[in-house]
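Shipment paperwork, digital attachment
Item: protein structure file
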Amino acid sequence: MPASLPVTAPGRVPDAAVDPVFPGRWSPRAFSPRAVPAEALDSIFEAARWAPSSFNDQPWLFFFARQPEDLARFRGWLHEFNQSWANQAPVLIFVAARRHFAHNGTPNRVAVFDSGAAWMSLALQAHELGLVTHGMAGIDVEKVHRELGLSPEQYEVIAAIALGYPGDPATLPEQLREREVPSGRKPRAEIAIEGNRKLAG
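Attachment content:
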C-alpha cells in the first residue's frame, strides 16, 4: 500500500495511505465515441457480480445499452441536463434493486445499499481498464419502470451510469467545461466518527 500519492489534480490528495485506485477514480462528463469492447463490459459486470450483499441476495439489476437503437431509447430516460453530455457516452446503464429478499419475500431494507456496493465495484473495475463512469440521479424513474417492465412494487429504479473512454472536454457544453476536473472530498474526520459522540445540531 503506498504511503503517499502524487498530486494529479486539486482536491485529490489523500489524508492517509490508500490504494491509488480510490482517489484516481472520478466522474468526468466528457466521453470518447470509441466503442467499449465486449470483453471489457464482461469484466466490469463480473466485478459487480462479486459485491457483498445481505443474505447473498444480490438484489441489483444492471440494464445496459451499447447499440445505437438501444442507446437512443435509454438516452430518452435521462433528464435534459444529463442528456446534454451523457448522449456522447457509448454505453448507458440503468441500475435497479429488487425490493424483497428472494428466499422469503420479506422487504429488503438494504437492497439499495447493497446495489451501491455493486455499482462501486463496477466503477473501480472500469477505472482499472482505463474507462470512466459517471452516475446520474437525474432520470425519469416512472418512464424507466414502464419501458423496462419493472413493477415499482417489486423494484426500485435507482440511477443511471454513463460508461466509456475519456473524451475531450471541448466537446462538452460550454458551462460544463470548467467543471471537468476531479472533485475534492470532505475531511475524513467529518465522515468517520469514533465512539458514541453525537453530531452537533
